[in-house]
Structures are given as C-alpha cells and as structure tokens.
Amino acid sequence: MQISEIKNEGLSREYSVTISAADIDKRIDGRLQEVGSTIKIPGFRPGKVPMAILRQRFSKSVMGEVLEAAVNESSQEVLRQNELRPAMQPKIEIDSFDEGKDLIYKMGVECMPEIKEMDFGKIELTRLKAKVDDKEIEEAVERIAKDFRKSEPIAKARKMKSGDVAVIDFKGSVDGVEFPGGAGEGHHLELGSNSFIPGFEEQLVGAKAGDDLDVKVTFPAEYHSEDLAGKDAVFAVSVKETREYVDQEINDEFAKSLGLEDLDQLKGQVRERMENDYNQVSRTRLKRELLDALHEGHEFDVPAGMVEQEFEQIWKQFEQARDAGQLDESETSKGEDELKAEYREIAERRVALGLLLSELGTKNNIQVTQDDLNRAMVQEAQKYPGQEAQVFEFYQKNPEALANLQAPIFEEKVVDFLLEMAKISDTEVSVEELMKDPDEEDAPAPKAKKTKAKKAASKKAAAKKTAAKKAD
Amino acid sequence: MSWKFLNKKPLSNERKYQVILAPVITEKATMGSEHNQVTFKVAADATKPEIKAAVEGLFDVKVEGVNTLNTKGKVKRFRGRLGQRSGYKKAVVRLAEGQSIDVTTGL
C-alpha cells in the first residue's frame, strides 16, 4: 500500500492511496475460501468446492465486498499513520480500478481542529438575578382568583349588561323551520364573551330575568355549517335567570378551595414557581454569555464540511418555513444571498461551539451516566401523562432516541463544569431586564431573536453530531 | 459389430457438436483433472472414436484415450406412480501430457 499526500491546507488533507493488485487478489482468495466453506454448488459437498470454480463463479460479487473492506482498512491506516482526527467521514473517490490492476483512490479528510483551551477562570460572567417582588405575587394570585370566580344570581332584579351571565333557554329556526343543534336549555351565556353568533349576545343586553324575546341574527358567511352560513335565523329566547360574577375574595378560604392550607402557602407556591421561571431564564442567559465568551476565547478553524452540513440543515428548515409562509418580516425583506451569508455564520458558530463543548467534555472526562439518562427519560415521560410506560418502552427499543436525549444532557453538564470554573458575579435586575433579549440593544431585534432561538435549538444538534461521531 | 465401427468417414462438424453435450462439473470429475482427464456428457449413441475425434476437433487437443459409461436414470415414484428419470452417457477423456481444457468457459 502506497500513500502520498496531495493536499495539505488548513484542516483539509487529501491523499492518494494505491493498493497493489496482488494484495487485492490475496484478499479475494481469502474471502472466497470463507465463502466456499458454506456455499452449496450442485455436484459438490459443501466446503469441497475447488477454488477454480469458486473464483469463476463468485469473484465478481466478492470483489465489491473486498474492495470496500480494502478501502476502509487502508483509509483507517492512513488516518493512523498521519495521526489525523477526522471531523467527518472521509470522502473517498476511486480513481481507477480493473481486475488484475492496482486500485488507486483519492481520500479527502477534514481534520478536527486543534483546540487550545482557554483559561476558564478568566471567563467573567454576570448572573442576572431578578427578585420576585410581592406585588407580582399579588397580581399572580389575583389572576388565579379570577380564573376561579363564581357567578351568583343578581340579587336585585335589574337589566343585564355586558359581563353578566344569562341563563337562557333558546330555540332557533331558519325560515320558520327549526334546525338541529339550534336549541338549548339552561345555557349559561356570558354576555360579551363572544361565544355565540355575533349579534346574539348584544341583543340580550338590557333583558331581565323572566323576559321572553326573539333574537334575530344572521349567521356569518363563513359559518362552519354550510346549510346555515349566511342565513337569517330567529331564536326564541327566554331568560330564566340573570347572574353576575362575584370577585373571588383572596383569603385562606380561597386557598383551601384550591387544596392548599392557607393563603401563605398559595403565595409561597406562586413565588416558587416564578422564581423557578426566572432562574431558568437567568440560566439560559448565563449559558449564552458563557458560550459567547467561549466562542471569543477560542480561535480555531472549523471544518468546512461540517459547516456546510449544518448550513444545509438550517437552510432546509428555512425553506420549509418559507414554504409554510412562516417567515418574519426581517427574513422576507432580505435577499437570498444575504440570508445565506447570515445563516452560514450561524452554522459556523454552532459547529465551532459544538466541537468545543464536546472536546471539553471528553478532555475533562464528563460523561452522561445512566442515572442522568433515566432522569431525562422520566422527564420526557411526564410530558405524556398516561403513556409513561410507552415512552419508556420507546426509549428502550430505540437506542438512537436515547442518544438524542444524551446530547443535551452532555451539553448541560459541560456547561455546568465550565460555570464552576468561571468567575460569576451576581447582579440584581428587574424582571423586565431579565426577560429582555440581550441582542436587542445592539442589533435589529427580530434578527437577533431568530438567531438566538435557532442557536439554542441547534447547538444541541451540533453537539449531538459530534457526540454521535465519537460514539462510533 | 455394428455399422458405426466400420464407418471410416471423418466426423462432420455438425456431428461433433451433437456428440459432446456438456462438461460434467462435480467433485468426482474435478478429481480427474489431476490425471489430465476431462469428463463430458455425451450423446447416448456416441462411440469412443467419435468422442475422441470430436474432442480433438472442438478443443484442439490430443486425446490419449476415452473411457465411457452409461448412467442409468433413477426410478422415482411420483403420486404413487413409477417414473423413470432419463439417464445419460459420460465420457472420461484422457488428454496428452501438458494439455488441458478449461471446461468452465464453454464453447
């Protein structure tokens, strides 16, 4: 086997490899012998078929197999001899081959870049902390209370206004003929809730309990029932009772009705939930800051092939979104070239960070344990209440799906690891500040948002890819 | 002696192809290749001199000797009825020293 280097530029290498015909013949003979011991040919007992006949009958089909094995083996050999760490599957192009002649092929490899780790202790991050103030909790509790408010009969008979609830019997007819589904008894209708046909509720405003009235409405042209759409209808409505909403008083009683001990506990729970939310946002921000710092702190070439792959993926997503008509204004206003350049940049960043994270992970011996996986699996299962067993089964049967779970965990762990080393200073900020998109200050907002969203989603993808590569 | 053996006329090309039917490729036949022997299926009415002439003519070799044998068809039972498989004649042809026929390539 002869190997010669044709190209050595940055991260990409190209080699020309020659495997001699004799070598290939030897391989073919070896393979034929293996085949011959099991194959059945009429006139011969299994394993007793002479080589000449085997060669004549099977050399063609064995050839492909042997060539593949030879190419694989020799390309591995090339990588080993030159101490390369391929970032992707090497590209192999067969130059020339004929039976009895030497096999010559070209092999293109993209190496993993040498990553020099920066001093992580130098990374300075600010963790944004938003305090949950009592006012917000009050508001949240009030919102909950509103969701649970009750309606009570209006004590003093008065005309109804918007926001009241009418308990009505109604019977609808079109051209004097009743239509199916057009009648109801004891229906609670909140006036102004727009749950009925437009115009219906308005005509009830001003009615009193015990009133009988005819409501004349026209079904909207795009009504879901074709028979009724656009038709004029008359509803004979009798108002049985009028009710109004009573504000739920926020006290221990209310908390008890929600299954809690007292109001303090309710507030405590609300606070906890909000704090959790804020912590999550703050962590995302922190992580983003960390990644930015990492991106800036490391300078290395990114394998072009990987960037290309990532870019293709983004572009495909983009095209799908475009076909579905879900594009932002900022995207439609730009030319295709501009967008491509933009996405390419994103792809580069993703790949770089993905490589970096996986590299750091392996160097520092960060591993995803079975426990972590199990926890993630349980979390995943909780998303499908009632089908937990199926979810578990799915993951047990599909190792690839499990690998998908693994990637984000791995990423999180690496991030945790780095955060431990980095200098983190806490800053108290208001909630609005926490929720604000950091890019909004310096870049046009929609673009930044998009990038961020995509980045978050796909860094995982990149990490996944590299992680998967490592696995095999 | 039948008329066949008295017929001294050279074998016609057509007859040569009629005599040699197929090579026999089996374990036993390949054993013969060590002794310069090649085995053919031949027409049931072919004679040794005919086979010799045919092999020499078609494969361009020198034949030292021909041994023949008749393989009888087996009696097989199918749905309770007896049946007879057809048999064939085999010829083991010994070639002169250093000569060979590649039976696998065909004619």
UniProtKB/TrEMBL annotation, chain A:
> So what does this thing catalyse?
[protein]-peptidylproline (omega=180) = [protein]-peptidylproline (omega=0)
The primary location reported for this protein is cytoplasm
Residue ranges spanning the membrane: these are none
Keyword field = Cell cycle, Cell division, Chaperone, Cytoplasm, Isomerase, Rotamase
The cross-references to PROSITE patterns, in alphabetical order and at most eight, read: FKBP_PPIASE (PS50059)
Which GO terms of the molecular function aspect are on file?
A: peptidyl-prolyl cis-trans isomerase activity; protein folding chaperone; ribosome binding
Which InterPro entries does its entry note?
PPIase_dom_sf, PPIase_FKBP_dom, Trig_fac, Trigger_fac_C, Trigger_fac_C_sf, Trigger_fac_ribosome-bd_bac, Trigger_fac_ribosome-bd_sf, Trigger_fact/SurA_dom_sf
Domain PPIase FKBP-type stretches: 163-245
A single GO CC term for this protein reads: cytoplasm
Q: Where in the cell is it found?
A: Cytoplasm
EC number(s) given by UniProt: 5.2.1.8
**What SUPFAM superfamilies does the record tag this protein with?**
FKBP-like, Triger factor/SurA peptide-binding domain-like, Trigger factor ribosome-binding domain
Q: What function is annotated for this protein? A: Involved in protein export. Acts as a chaperone by maintaining the newly synthesized protein in an open conformation. Functions as a peptidyl-prolyl cis-trans isomerase.
UniProt-listed NCBIfam families: tig
Domains as described in the record: Consists of 3 domains; the N-terminus binds the ribosome, the middle domain has PPIase activity, while the C-terminus has intrinsic chaperone activity on its own.
What is the name attached to this protein's record? Trigger factor
What is the protein's species of origin? Aestuariispira insulae
Automatic annotation (TrEMBL), chain B:
SUPFAM superfamilies reported for this sequence: Ribosomal proteins S24e, L23 and L15e
Q: What residue intervals traverse the membrane?
A: none
**GO annotations of cellular component type:** ribonucleoprotein complex; ribosome
Q: Name one GO molecular function term.
A: structural constituent of ribosome
- Look up the domain of life of the source: Bacteria
The UniProt entry's GO biological process terms, in alphabetical order, are:
translation
Among InterPro entries, the record links this protein to: Nucleotide-bd_a/b_plait_sf, Ribosomal_uL23-like, Ribosomal_uL23/eL15/eS24_sf, Ribosomal_uL23_CS
Keywords carried by this UniProt record: Ribonucleoprotein, Ribosomal protein, RNA-binding, rRNA-binding
Per its UniProt record, what Pfam families does this chain match? Ribosomal_L23
> What family is it from?
Belongs to the universal ribosomal protein uL23 family.
Annotated function: One of the early assembly proteins it binds 23S rRNA. One of the proteins that surrounds the polypeptide exit tunnel on the outside of the ribosome. Forms the main docking site for trigger factor binding to the ribosome.
Assembly and binders: Part of the 50S ribosomal subunit. Contacts protein L29, and trigger factor when it is bound to the ribosome.
**Which PANTHER family does the entry mention?**
60S RIBOSOMAL PROTEIN L23A
Instruction: Tell me the HAMAP family matching this sequence.
Output: Ribosomal_uL23_B (MF_01369_B)
Protein name, entry field: Large ribosomal subunit protein uL23
